[in-house]
Amino acid sequence: MKPLACLTIAATMMFSVLPRCALAATFASRSLVCAVYGEKDGELGIDLGRVGEIDFSVRKVLAPPGTVEPGKFPNTPAWSLLRVGCWSANGVVGFMFAADRQGPAPAAPKDTFPANGFTNVDVGVRQVYGKGGGANPVLVEAGTLHSYVQAMNRMGTRPGNYGGINPDPATYREASLAPLAEGLAATLYLYRYTLDLEKAKAGTIVYSLDRGADSATEYFATLGFAADGSIVLNPEKGGTD
User: Fold this and answer.
1) Scanning 142, 148, 189, 206, which has its CA 20 to 30 A from the CA of 165?
2) Is residue 207 within 8 Å of 51, Cβ to Cβ?
3) What number of other Cβ atoms are within 10 A of residue 127's Cβ?
């Protein structure tokens, strides 16, 4: 591996470990975040918790009823007009993003540049959400610089692009919340990738797809957005909340 590439990986890994004091306790690095937005409104940022503290193999309510509701979007007060994306980043070491497609999984990046770009965009969005004074969820005005729509969706021109980490946002899309109008749930599939550090040290960049508890599927876990405004991890699984 070229020295510059080694330095980039090392620096990014170090940055991902250091605390970002500018961020509030909510929307801190390596938490799972969702953004719900309307076509004529701002966006609702939701922190679902630190990835390392979530058991992705079980069913669990990550956000209570009333977290997401059309009334929070006065200019687009209908489920059918709301969309949602979810993600988490850990520098070049690993990342996950959500799409409405069950599989096969999106292609993994072949170098660290997409993950670097994704991480930079992720930090900016978290800083915007963190300015809410610790509020969770937090409502951000439309057009806010470095917001999800502005940064990850390229000012709304590429929904589900996630700052470039999603190679095919036309196929692996954000989810529409339209099913909630019929009392149904909207489902997002989380895809998680991890850099093989040993191969990276030897000069080869390989991102592996992390399968979830069900090895027969390529997604890592699912997120269900329910008509009562709650967000549930793996809603199809049984068990207590």
Assistant:
1) 142
2) no
3) 15
3-state secondary structure of 17: helix
Residue indicated by tokens 């991902």: 16
With contact defined as beta carbons under 8 Å apart, do 112 and 6 qualify?
no
Hey, what are 63's tokens?
């956000």
pLDDT of residue 88: 97
- Answer positive or negative: Cα dihedral of 212, 106, 163, 225: negative
Positions of the chain with pLDDT lower than 50, given as ranges: 1-24, 240
pLDDT at 100: 95
104: left (phi over 0), alpha (psi -120 to 50) or beta: beta
Tell me whether residue 111 is exposed, middle or buried, using C-beta atoms within 10 angstroms of its C-beta: 0 to 12, 13 to 18, 19 or more.
exposed
E strands within 81-146?
A: 82-90, 94-99, 138-140
Phi, psi of 200 (to 5 degrees): -65, -40
Displacement of CA 177 from its chain's centroid (Å): 16
Residue 154: CB atoms within 10 A of its CB come to 15
Q: What pLDDT shows up at residue 5?
A: 40
Residue 43 has which token pair?
């966006």
Structure tokens at 162: 């996630």
